[in-house]
Amino acid sequence: MNEAYVISRLSHYIATIEFFHPQSNSLPGKILEELANAISHAGNDPQCRVIVLRSGGEKSFCAGASFDELTAINDKEEGLKFFTGFARVINAMRTCPKFIIGRIQGKCVGGGVGLAASVDYAIATERSDIKLSELAVGIGPFVVGPAVERKVGLAAFSQLSIDSSSWRSAEWAAVKGLFAEVYESIDEVDNAVNRLAQTLAHSSPEAMAEIKKICWKGTEHWDQLLTERAAISGRLVLSDFTRNAIATFKKG
User: Fold this and answer.
1) How far is CA 133 from CA 119, 166, 218, 247, in A?
2) pTM of the model as a whole
3) What span, in angstroms and rounded, lies between the C-alpha atoms of 147 and 87?
4) What are the tens digits of pLDDT across the range 152-186?
5) If 0-12 CB within 10 Å is exposed, 13-18 middle and 19+ buried, where does residue 39 land?
6) 77-87 in b/e burial notation, b at 16+ Cβ within 10 A?
7) Are the beta carbons of 118 and 151 closer than 8 angstroms?
8) Quick one: DSSP state of residue 206?
């Protein structure tokens, strides 16, 4: 697999949305746009009752923002547009009336942690370590921050944000509430995902929609908040510090 993609499949009331990028499932703007659209479409489809979000390949779940696109940003407007892509995906997941199950098969970095935090129920393998690496490249987890903090709490979010070079284990993420279930093998993860998806596919759509509203209570202002956060990231990404840090990361 060398071409990036977002694919949606619907079967027996279960929509499966899969994204892939050859660079460890990183997220360029096109993938972000397609992800947001796919989630919104599934959420509005009466034939869909539950969504499974997964990524392709067997290694990283998601490496976060595309470094190639970050280095190509030339002004604040371009920066705002790029990071608004993350805001759109998170808000699409937040406002989707269907439960979203996350199949986490590997490491989550930066925006990948934001995706894992924005699903309603994340099921992961033991090798799904997490890291909010943004500060290490001179930015910060501004857009994904509200979603991560909502799941793990302010203290754990602060730890991830400040010590941006250290990995936290899947077990740590489960204890903090980011992952609902953790299994040794991907087969066990798939069995757990399929079991829950089948159960929800036979549950009341109206009841599930009402439960989701309760679970996301207090986030109604996120359309504005995440756009404001995207502007901060869009400004900071233009700094010499960030450009030099990303160049160093790419060489390594």
Assistant:
1) 20, 8, 27, 15
2) 0.96
3) 10
4) 999 999 999 999 999 999 999 999 999 999 999 99
5) buried
6) ebbbebbbbbb
7) no
8) H
Give phi and psi for 9, each to the nearest 5.
Answer: -135, 140
Please give the mean pLDDT across all residues of the chain. Answer: 96
Return the CATH architecture of domain 5-186. Alpha-Beta Complex (3.90)
Annotated domain spans of the chain: 5-186
CB 201 within 8 A of CB 13: yes
pLDDT of 111 reads 96
Q: How far apart are CA 160 and CA 224, in angstroms?
A: 24
Residue 157 burial (CB < 10 Å; 0-12/13-18/19+)? buried
Nearest alpha carbon to residue 196 among 38, 34, 50, 39:
50
Q: Distance between CA 202 and CA 12 in Å, rounded? A: 9
pLDDT in tens, 84-129: 999 999 999 999 999 999 999 999 999 999 999 999 999 999 999 9
Q: In a 10 Å sphere around its CB, with 0-12 CB exposed, 13-18 middle and 19+ buried, how is residue 55 labelled?
A: buried
